[in-house]
Amino acid sequence: QVQLVESGGGLVQPGGSLRLSCVASGSIFSINNMGWYRQAPGKERELVAIITSGDNTNYADSVKGRFTISRDNAKNTVYLQMNVLKPEDTAVYYCNVYYNSVDGGLINLRVSWGQGTQVTVSS
Length: 123
Known about the structure:
Elements: E1 2-7, E2 10-12, E3 18-26, E4 30-39, E5 46-51, E6 57-59, E7 67-72, E8 77-82, E9 91-103, E10 106-113, E11 117-121
């Protein structure tokens, strides 16, 4: 069982910045992809950004040039630096981690989700 704890959400004015963090803990052999998703009221959850174990990144078109995803493998942590925030960025942001765990001598690929952190962009 792996737990993800997110932090860094809050209320910010348009044009402002926030930095989200997500720490993974538990029975982790290794971590593969780490990512951030978001879900606004009345909308489906969407991918915001993803970073692979090789530090390759991919972003939703709506956040390219404004958001930066990074990871600290020593701390099992993924970050999302959000700059030039817009009201349409308002959503609950969820951390997502694909990891390998060892169970009975076998390596299993699993996925875990964080509980979500609210980001509100408003004047």
